[in-house]
Design brief:
The chain has 273 residues and is of the alpha/beta class. It contains nine helices and twelve strands. The strands form three sheets. Strands 9-8-7-10-11-12 form a six-stranded parallel beta sheet, with helices on both faces. A hairpin with a 2-residue loop joins β2 and β3. The longest helix has 15 residues.
Length: 273
C-alpha cells in the first residue's frame, strides 16, 4: 500500500469530506470546515510485519516504522567523490548498494517510510568544532570539509552540492524524506527527531555507511531518545577492520536494540500477509 497523497500536507483537501487538513501527516492533522476546527486526529491502524531474526523473530508496525538510509551519497560512494580522492576504498562504501536496490522498492510498496540521512554541512563550517575540522582534513595538504578536491565536484559534503546528493544508483522517490546532518549522529542539532515524531514513527531500521561511525552513532542516539532500533547488518558496511563491525553488532544487541538482515525483511515483505 502506498502512502496517500494527503500525507503531503500541511494544507490539503480531504476528498471524502471536503474538509481542509492542516498538519505534517494524515494522522496528525486538524480538520477545518466553515463551522469548526477539529483537533481530533485520525488513528493510525497497525499493519504488522513479522520477519526472521536472532535470537527471536521480530514483529514491527509498518505504519510506525522507517528505514533510515545513512550517507549513501556521492562524496562517499562515487569514484570521483571526496572519499575516493582521499584514497579510501569504495569497496566497502558501495557494498550496501545491491541490497538497498532490492529492499527500498518493496519497503515503499508496503507503505514503509524511507528517510535519507546524508552529511550536508554549512559552506562556512561555522558550527563545526576544531576536532571535526581536523578529523576531516588531518594534514595540511589534505582536503577537508567544505573544500574542493583535485577533481572538482564542488565543496565536500556541503548541503546542495553534488557530494551531498544520493548516489544515482539509488532512486529517491517523492514519498521519501531527506534530512541533512553535520555530525556522526543524525540526531544532533537538526530536525530529524521532530520529523519522525510528527509522523508517529517509533521503529527505525538502519542501513548504509559506515556501520561503526554514522550508522552506529545515529542508532545509539535513537535508542537514547526512546526509538526501537534494528540494524540490518547485510545492508551496512565500513572500511574498518572486521573486528570493529563484530563489536558494533555485539553492542547493539547487548544494549541498544536488535540485529537482523535486510534479506529476511525482504522475504517477509514479499510474502502474502
Amino acid at each position: 500500500m502506498n502512502i496517500k497523497s494527503i500525507d503531503l500536507i500541511p494544507t490539503a483537501i480531504d476528498s471524502s469530506t471536503g474538509d481542509v487538513k492542516f498538519g505534517p501527516a494524515e494522522h496528525n492533522a486538524w480538520s477545518v470546515t466553515e463551522e469548526a476546527v477539529s483537533l481530533v486526529r485520525q488513528p493510525l491502524l497497525p499493519r504488522t510485519l513479522k520477519f526472521a531474526s536472532t535470537p527471536k523473530d521480530l514483529e514491527i508496525d509498518l505504519t510506525r516504522s522507517a528505514v533510515i538510509v545513512v550517507d549513501m551519497q556521492n562524496d562517499f560512494c562515487h569514484k570521483e567523490g571526496w572519499f575516493a580522492q582521499k584514497g579510501v576504498s569504495l569497496r566497502a562504501t558501495r557494498k550496501p548498494i545491491p541490497m538497498l536496490k532490492k529492499l527500498l522498492p518493496v519497503w515503499r510498496d508496503a507503505g514503509g517510510q524511507v528517510v535519507w540521512l546524508n552529511w550536508g554541512i554549512r559552506a562556512d563550517r561555522m558550527n563545526l568544532s576544531p576536532t571535526i575540522h581536523f578529523k576531516g582534513k588531518r594534514t595540511l595538504a589534505g582536503v577537508g570539509y567544505a573544500e574542493r578536491s583535485a577533481i572538482d565536484r564542488g565543496l565536500s559534503v556541503v548541503t546542495g552540492e553534488w557530494g551531498a546528493q544520493v548516489i544515482e544508483e539509488l532512486k529517491v522517490e517523492s514519498s521519501d524524506l531527506a534530512v541533512d546532518k553535520h555530525r556522526l549522529s543524525g540526531f544532533w542539532d537538526n530536525e530529524l527527531d521532530s520529523i519522525l515524531r510528527m509522523r508517529g514513527i517509533t521503529t527505525l531500521l538502519f542501513v548504509g555507511i559506515n556501520t561503526d561511525r554514522c550508522v552506529f552513532s545515529t542508532l545509539q542516539d535513537a535508542a537514547f531518545l526512546g526509538y526501537d532500533c534494528i540494524l540490518l547488518k547485510d545492508a551496512c558496511s565500513t572500511p574498518s577492520p572486521a573486528y570493529v563491525t563484530r563489536s558494533i553488532l555485539f553492542i547493539v544487541e547487548q544494549l541498544h536494540g536488535f540485529v537482523a538482515t535486510a534479506q529476511s525483511l525482504i522475504t517477509a515483505l514479499r510474502s502474502p500477509r
